[in-house]
Amino acid sequence: MADLSTIHAGKILIVDDQQANIHVLRTMLQRAGYQNVKWTMDPSAVCGLHLENGFDLILLDLLMPAMDGFQVLDALRRTDMALPSVLVITAQPSHKLRAMQAGANDFISKPFDHAEVLTRIHYMLEVRRLQQETRDHSARLEQTVLARTAELRRSEEMFRELAANIPEALWIRDEEQQTIQYANPAWKKLSGIDAAAGDPLEKIFKTIHHDDLLWLTHDRRKSRDGHADNEYRVVHADESERWVHARSFPITNPAGNSPWIVEIIEDITQRREAQQQLVHLARHDALTSLANRTLLYDSLRDALVRADAENLVVSVLLIDIDFFKIVNDSLGHAMGDALLCEFAARLTGCVRPGDTVGRLGGDEFAVIVLTPADNFNASKVAARIGKALQKPFTLGGQDVLVTTSIGVASYPVDTREFETLLHYADTAMYEAKVAGRKSFRCYNPAMKERAMRKSDIQSALRLALDRGEFVLHYQPKMRVDGGQLSSVEALLRWNRPEYGLVAPGDFVPALEEMGLIVPVGTWVVETACRQIRKWQKAGLGDIRIAVNVSPKQVREELFIAHVAEAIRNNRIDPALLEFEITETTLMAPGESTDVALRSLKALGITISIDDFGTGYSNLAYLKRFQVDALKIDMGFIHDITTNADSATIAVAIINMAHNLRLKVIAEGVETQEQLEFLREHGCDEAQGFFFSRALPEAELSQRYRQAIGIEAEHDAVLFAHAEAGHA
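^ that's the sequence the OP posted. Answer follows.
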């Protein structure tokens, strides 16, 4: 193996018509320790530069305006100098095979990964150095053999001693007589057979792999002077195979007749295996050994061609592990990797040997299935895969349950376009996630319309915050026992131009998916604090505002700092700010959630658990984080007076919360009967359409002004304002 300093001393030429690309590659190489790096933006100068410098490696961009990389490769082949190793750079997958056929040694795709580029360059220079050493060694050996052949006329013993002690296999043949003249011990070790002087050449030719013998014989017939340089396979007597590099050259026949041919054979099996391993790594996922994105897409293109020729249907199944990040974070990355490997193995076992299974990255996998057009049913395949993957995975002695979201699109049923087929499968997978995960969806045209609407909403949302299109509406919370206003809940609304107010369910999930919930959530907190101060200045007193906070906000590194800054800038009492969080936020793994919730309590902010009773909260967490209140989910309140189970659950939550000295708020109250039930069982506060819908700030302020100074029992009536039953 060549030492690092030798590799770093290799002569490298960068050929690219883009100065920025040259700068990136040159800087990367110099930082990695390469000392002899030159560059040119003129592809026509490559041959001259190579003749002048004798480069070991050329990094060649294929697509250049005046002279492309293929022309450069052709020009290099026509020079008298030894060809350098060539690593082509291309963003076109279709050019890769053509470049290799044109003489390139390897390729990298744009945009390229720095670590991959440096690894490829290191390997190619190392292989070139080893090849150079081999050539030098072989050349020296050839010279030695030629010199010793003359001496053998005087001393055959000297030759035999030399040939018997070199590590390479060596044999001599008489082309005219078609006989073996000599074979050294290394040949016997390589082939496992004895070859004595006078044996027919067929004895040695039988050791050459049958797939290589025909082309090898044809290639050598073209060389009339006996010189040859080939790589082929030798089959040992024990049937094992070895790759060899063989060099042949003529020597003087002691009898003075036709020259004899000497063949020196080097075992290069390890080098070939290393090359094959690199090729495998370039087209397979390093973790799971499945096809990677490159191989998967190539396989899909081949499948589409075959489908047209044989009247088949190609189905693409995109498979995503539901909530993999939670599993990965809670169990650790090592266990997450183990899950991906087990998942890949089970997925492979779900399909036929001819189907293609690949990993696109992260926790996203893909399957390519070909079926007869008259027996096409991709949904059966998806259902079988989904069911098989639901069985527990045993990792580190514990069972881990996962589910999958699967999207299916088929060619030519849904589309005849490669990119569109993948897009449709992705759209179908998204629909499966929206439907609650743990399911599959096959693409249909209605999904395209929903995807377009989603894209339209996402495009508008990216500008909504900067354009000031978000507003807060406020829904009153009333004391159940007396009817007075206790606080309000701030609810986000999007006043989209030309559309009006957009329902939260139509845009809040998009904010979460796009990662915009954090900046928008920061704006909500700041706006709520500003509103508290505004009401104080207007003489309405201290009105507490509850704000919904997403799990992503809680885990955000600067969340606490932004909250503290909003409180400080608006000079409000932190007790007037209440954060409503979900049970999943409370249960989220990781130290960041613990730190954030404790910091909020330290600031003096009230914390309540929203939609309580619908999740899997551990009651110990309620005390651990000093939660102040629980909100009974409206699903229980809706039929609290007509469904015994809902009533029992609501009463149990109220009693449990009071025993833990927590306040209880009921949301979704719509009738007098529901309010009376809650009052009878000691619920503290309530909100819902029976009292008021969420109101714009100006309307809420006006109603609150009307309520000031009036008997408390009339407050609920003032706020109701014909809201009961309003959707």
